[in-house]
Amino acid sequence: MEKSKERYVAEAMINEYLKMKKGEYLAITADQDSNFKQLEAYLEVCHENDVACTILKTATPPGQSKAAEATVPVEATKEFLMNVDCWIDAGSMGLLYSDIYEHVMENNKKMRYMLTIHLPTDMLYDMYCSFHVEKMVELTNLIKKRYNESKAITVRNSDGMDITFEVDTNNFIAMDNGDASIPGMYTPPADINFIPKQGTAKGTIACRVVYAASQEPDAISDEPAFIHIDEGRVVGIDGEKNASEFLNNWYKKFEYDKNARMIAHVLVGLLPGSKEIASYCVIDERIYGAACWGIGHVSALDMPPEGQPSDTHVDVICPRITILFDDQVIMENGEFTCPEFKTIADVMVK
């Protein structure tokens, strides 16, 4: 009997990505809008491998992150998650950067956290089953090494983006490359995420998609909006009317928040086969050769010692980037051109 996509994803998640072992514990947080057919497949694979798995289901929350805690018994959930090895966050909104997440990730030193929200199985299959993990690990490790050896990073694209920032090697580099076998925070592959040295980003971000309030776009256009940055802070927004108006109105709500307009991260999408905007945040963030700039909140776990606390985090998507490590072009128009990177990238796809 041919295996279902749910089964392929579950085997990849439990055995290949999280590398769960006999006797370990997995918790899955979910709500009424979660993809339960997929969650049952995780549970079945866990049971077959002597891994104890519990699905914690609540009502669908009104928002993501801290807002997602509205329907969750917070203290009880914290205590439960303090006593497991792995956590798949499969709620429709996700608990990433919530108080629950911050507490558990700071205090449960063995935790491997995987954020999938309620993605449909077809999307999960494309992300978890489409590339050779060992090659993606090799590529992201090389990118991380070369990044940490650099002093300044420049990101450009044909829409008019041109922004430079300094490297701070104390900030965490997240790599969603298919290996989630050691404690840490993971999201669906494939990408690598950099946190610039605070206060150093300068230039212009040219974006086509804006995500602020949910997994669906708050603004999307064939023309770019421009976010002007100086000393790591948004100082002006113009360009495409809908996106620029949305962002300007969004930030009016956070005038009290000193970090709301601060650059948080730039994530480079590396998912083979993902080339076009899908209008779903977790997919668009991983478009191969695109940049996802984050503005606002950064956890202290990622930017020690204090992080960049904020009540908002906005992500904007910028297709087909050119990226320079110091003066060397690594990627051009969304494709690796530097030979040492290109050689690996060319053999990643299954």
What does this protein structure show overall?
Keywords: Metal-binding. One of its GO terms (molecular function) is metal ion binding. It comes from Emergencia timonensis. This protein has 350 residues and is of the alpha+beta class. The chain folds into two domains: 5-128, Response regulator (Rossmann fold), CATH 3.40.50; 133-345, no CATH class. It is 26% helix and 31% strand. The strands form two sheets. Strands 5, 6, 7, 9, 10, 11, 12, 13, 14, 15, 16, 17 and 18 form a 13-stranded antiparallel beta sheet that branches. Helix 4 (99-107) links the parallel strand 3 and strand 4 (112-115). Helix 1 crosses helix 2 (36-48), helix 1 (5-17) crosses helix 5 and helix 3 (74-81) packs parallel to helix 4 (99-107). The two termini are 22 Å apart. The model has no long low-confidence stretch (mean pLDDT 96).
SS content category:
alpha+beta
Relative strand content: 25-35%
Taking the sheet with the most strands, its summary is: 13 strands, antiparallel
How many helix segments? 9
Mean pLDDT: 96
Features:
single chain; about 350 residues; alpha+beta; Rossmann fold; 13-stranded antiparallel sheet; five-stranded parallel sheet; 9 helices; 18 strands; about 30% strand; NicX; M29_Exopeptidase; metal-binding
